[in-house]
Amino acid sequence: MQLDRYDLQILEILQQDGRISNQDLADRISLTPSPCLRRLHALEESGLITGYRALLDAKKLGLSLMALILISMDRHTPERLGNFEAKVLEIPDVLECLLITGQDADYQLKVVVKDMDAYQELLLNRITRIEGVTGVHSSFVLRRVVDKTALPLGTQA
Questions:
Q1: Closest CA to 104 of 72, 138, 67, 69
Q2: Interatomic CA distance for residues 109 and 67, integer angstroms
Q3: Is 0.70 surpassed by the pTM of this model?
Q4: What residues does the HTH asnC-type domain cover (predicted)?
Q5: Alpha-carbon distances of 46 from 12, 49, 98, rounded to whole Å
Q6: Order of strands across the sheet with 133-140?
Q7: Domains in the chain, ordered, with CATH?
Q8: Is 140 helix (H, G, I), strand (E, B) or coil?
């Protein structure tokens, strides 16, 4: 899909305010509501917009411990990796799972839990019990310096 300046503006604005009305969106990009809505639907149907979500405050929900976990696997077969990924998908505390290179690890997980006891439970009774996991290295997040969900679109025009 070829994106023009209106499409990029729509995407940029929606990343900041996914609840904006079509009228307000149209006003902000200097289009009338009807073509603005057509463009929005085209962006959704193309798969560029994958959904709309509410962002929650983890600490206010009692989830005050965030950790990054590097996971090493014993074998790199599609079956072993597929099994690991399927098991990780079942763990609600896992916010992100990345297959990585450049480390002495195969995966990086970002997890959020209530406290260190909950982390110990997650690590010892869930993650290390997944078949093929041979090593874990945990780092704990002290403070989020940059915490964005918006993709940089300024260079796409």
A1: 72
A2: 8
A3: yes
A4: 3-64
A5: 16, 8, 25
A6: 94-99, 107-113, 65-73, 133-140
A7: 5-54 (1.10.10.10), 59-140 (3.30.70.920)
A8: strand
